[in-house]
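Researcher: Please translate sequence to structure tokens.
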Amino acid sequence: MSDDAPRPARPSEPEGSGFDSMARDIADVPAVEVITTVAVHLMSAAAVNLGLSEEGEQHKDLDEARKLVHALAGLVTASATEIGSYHAAPLRDGLKSLQLAFREASVVPDEPGQGPGEKFTGPVYG
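Model: Translation complete:
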């Protein structure tokens, strides 16, 4: 089949759903943009769960924040060499800020090196 030939719809894909178009669109997005976008979403969600949004305490959930910060640390650490310092440096700064905010928000702070994501980043100090 050539690239120009129409492809029959998949059974779970309605006719004319645009799946091929979406796949082509995402293929055009550079990996660094996908990685940084995901990182920003993780940062935003973590900040909300740390109570740093306008509603603050209403959305505070440190268990959820811990998971998000941990995932962010893994993503930033694993992708840093791939995305380069220009993109990784601000992500690292944001991650460190969230790790410090988590420590500050905790009633009983974790031991250094035991906070969210610190197994990837090492201990975080203020």
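Researcher: Any highlights?
Model: The mean pLDDT is 88.
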